[in-house]
TrEMBL record:
Pfam family, one: adh_short
Taxonomic superkingdom: Bacteria
Name under which the protein is recorded: Short chain dehydrogenase
GO molecular function term, any single one: oxidoreductase activity, acting on the CH-OH group of donors, NAD or NADP as acceptor
Gene3D superfamilies listed in its UniProt record: NAD(P)-binding Rossmann-like Domain
InterPro entries linked: NAD(P)-bd_dom_sf, SDR_enzymes, SDR_fam
Coiled coil (UniProt feature): none
């Protein structure tokens, strides 16, 4: 005899920004099983095929610039009038793209690329956090996770290289640390995480997967579950917690 297990969804909403990305879309799927509504924000006009059948998904399209972010945050707030926001995942980021890849030496540094990496990896998530702050302040308890990376740890940098990506993630962590202090005063019920997913099988890591040791390349689905577990365990204590998929703290 088959036993059907019915999991009651929390009467809360969750938000994912960067919802068309590898980790972002897997996180949407995982959240959709647990929360009554998932609001997904992306630059893409439509959800990827894997998300198309989710009945409790609300897809918002927003360009990656200040005005569009503010407008999208207002739309999120409208959606959350009836369902309080409990989880926010900012899953955007870039490592390589048209005409740029991680630098191996000082000779490869390029000012425009450095600026682009700072803009996407550090500035954009902070613009989102700032735009969502009024909504977070009104929440009755929420956890925000921002996708960072272990290579943004200054203490952990023994290999060098990857100047722009490392520096932009270190900048992200510093910006988040300041935000944690402020939220601790203005929205003490909000927990904040800088999350390192581990090397995950997405477009971002694709060119760099060859040397990943056996068993250390994670599926986006498993990372999404780990992320939600870390978020469930997060304390709202005015601190920024820089943690990996296993819940281990990462040194600054
Ligand atoms: N994969 C890994 O091994 C790994 C390891 C450590 C840390 N991370 C971090 O995890 C996060 C998610 O990465 P992922 O692996 O899921 O990568 P991904 O599949 O490439 O997704 C990244 C998403 O970020 C958004 N994005 C990319 N370029 C952008 C730009 N120029 N402007 C605005 N948004 C942009 C896009 O979201 P939309 O298309 O929805 O707009 C994109 O789908 C990133 O912050 C990354 O640094 C990943």
């Amino acid at each position: 005899m088959m036993t059907e297990v019915i999991v009651k969804k929390a009467e809360r909403a969750a938000l994912v920004v960067g919802a068309a990305g590898g980790i972002g879309s897997a996180t949407v799927v995982a959240l959709a099983e647990r929360y009554q509504q998932v609001i997904a924000v992306s630059r893409q006009p439509r959800p990827p095929a894997a998300l198309a059948d989710l009945a409790n998904l609300c897809w918002l399209t927003a360009a990656a610039e200040e005005g569009a972010i503010a407008e999208a945050a207002r739309a999120v707030a409208d959606h959350c009038e009836s369902l309080p926001l409990a989880r926010v995942v900012l899953a955007t980021g870039t490592l390589h793209g048209d005409g740029y890849r991680p630098e191996k030496s000082l000779r490869e540094l390029d000012a425009a690329t450095l600026g682009h990496l700072y803009q996407v990896n550090a500035v954009l998530p902070l613009l989102w956090l700032a735009a969502l702050e009024p909504l977070l302040r009104r929440s009755d308890g929420a956890t925000v996770a921002v996708l960072s990376a272990r290579v943004g740890s200054i203490a952990d940098n023994r290999l060098g290289g990857w100047y722009g990506y490392r520096a932009s993630k270190a900048a992200l962590n510093m910006l988040l640390r300041s935000a944690a202090v402020e939220l601790g005063r203005r929205a003490p019920q909000v927990a904040l995480l800088a999350f390192h997913p581990g090397t995950t099988d997405t477009a971002l890591s694709k060119p760099f997967q060859a040397r990943v040791p056996e068993g250390r390349l994670f599926s986006p689905a498993s990372v999404a579950i780990a992320l939600l577990e870390r978020m469930d365990a997060a304390q709202a204590d005015g601190e920024l917690h820089f943690v990996d998929y296993a819940g281990e703290s990462i040194p600054w």
